[in-house]
Amino acid sequence: MLSNKQTTWAMEQIEQMYPEAECELTHTNALELLVAVILSAQCTDALVNKVTPGLFSKYKRPDDYIRVPQEELEQDIRRIGLFRNKAKNIQKMSQSLLDHYGGEVPADRDELMKLAGVGRKTANVVASVAFDLPAIAVDTHVERVSKRLGICRWKDSVLEVEKTLMRKLPEEKWSDSHHQLIFFGRYHCKARNPQCETCPLLEICREGRKRV
């Protein structure tokens, strides 16, 4: 596994590649971001961004989502995979906001995780992006890159990957590193056909050295 020093060096290279990395889900407030992240599960941000403009013009507050039948909300997001389950989760989450938080999205990861349909990754994204709190959300890109490079072990769970990154990176870098790892995994170290030959991290990447 990479040492803390090697991990820091690797992140410096990734930061140089993607200095402007940020959340690519279109949103204007915490509720919109929360809904967008729920919709993005097993779905591309690009597709979510095609659906949410119309969605957010129709649904502006948590009570808007629960005033309509679930079937209507399903139709509004039907282009997105798992739309039935996601519509159900959005309505349950909205009800949780109304019941326990006065209709406002809580600015705390642990409180976010109490919302129906909200897991740790979603809570980390919202805490980091909407409220500027230090957090690392481990999605498929972050997990893949961390394991390929050797920052983490192949057998590590998503939670173990998160904790390892938090341990090896300074807290003030967590949120930026999360986005930079996503961009690196999405556009360079892809699941299929990673660009190992042109990668500045090749010399320390345990997976890359096997491929070239």
List keywords for this structure.
212 residues; mainly alpha; Endonuclease Iii, domain 2; 12 helices; 58% helix
Task: Give an account of the 3D structure.
The chain is mainly α and 212 residues long. The protein folds into two domains: 4-21 and 136-211, Helix-hairpin-Helix base-excision DNA repair enzymes (C-terminal) (Endonuclease Iii, domain 2, Orthogonal Bundle), CATH 1.10.1670.10; 30-131, Hypothetical protein, domain 2 (Endonuclease III, domain 1, Orthogonal Bundle). Helix content is 58%, strand content 0%. The protein has twelve helices and no strands. Helix 1 (4-17) packs across helix 11 (174-187), helix 5 (70-76) packs across helix 6 (83-100) and helix 9 packs across helix 11. The model has no long low-confidence stretch (mean pLDDT 95).
